[in-house]
Known about the structure:
The complex is a heterodimer of chains A (114) and B (115).
Chain A lengths: L3 E3 L3 E5 L4 E7 L6 E7 L6 E7 L4 E3 L3 E6 L4 E6 L8 E8 L8 E3 L3 E6 L1
Chain B lengths: L4 E3 L2 E4 L5 E6 L6 E8 L3 E9 L2 E4 L8 E7 L2 E6 L8 E8 L9 E2 L3 E5 L1
Parallel strand pairs in B: 2-11
Antiparallel strand pairs in B: 1-3, 3-8, 4-5, 4-9, 5-6, 7-8, 9-10, 9-11
Amino acid sequence: GESVGLHLPTLSVQEGDNSIINCAYSNSASDYFIWYKQESGKGPQFIIDIRSNMDKRQGQRVTVLLNKTVKHLSLQIAATQPGDSAVYFCAERGRGSTLGRLYFGRGTQLTVWP
Amino acid sequence: DAGVIQSPRHEVTEMGQEVTLRCKPISGHDYLFWYRQTMMRGLELLIYFNNNVPIDDSGMPEDRFSAKMPNASFSTLKIQPSEPRDSAVYFCASSSGSGLTDTQYFGPGTRLTVL
């Protein structure tokens, strides 16, 4: 099955700085990726997604970059705020018979210091 | 919209007891997913339903686990008998489809502790 991993388990940044969270995937045929944010005591919350026919997608203060050559995905958060402190997961959509499944990475804990 | 609703939010039980977790998906969503989250294994899909029918239960760990969806607005995940290694946070999620870009919306989870 798919394997989605993360480069770093924790990331600490100062308020106002930009954050970059990385993710690697193993299936070169994967064509849809999602980033989720999970705050303490809550369920994962959808942030942004990207299809494989795109290299970049922007949302409000967040940008996802996809590098299919090296099978790498990143989430950039601009002007990081204390409310951004959470665990961030990348997820990969299955294909074919597993289209309904999401395969999650292990998560990166982002801590924002004032 | 109230979002996905799960109950109870916390459950503490003793080994060997039966545990039932409940989920109400978002109204109109025809896909429902049960996940388990642990530090060791991360977030794992246990089973998912489409129109109340189980589609993929390959993630269900063993026969002690069972899930049902008697109607479009209710699902249960049952563990019988429970074991300490079942301690985890169990999430229910729903979506309006299983298409490539259909977003899964997660509930707040049930934290299960088996003593």
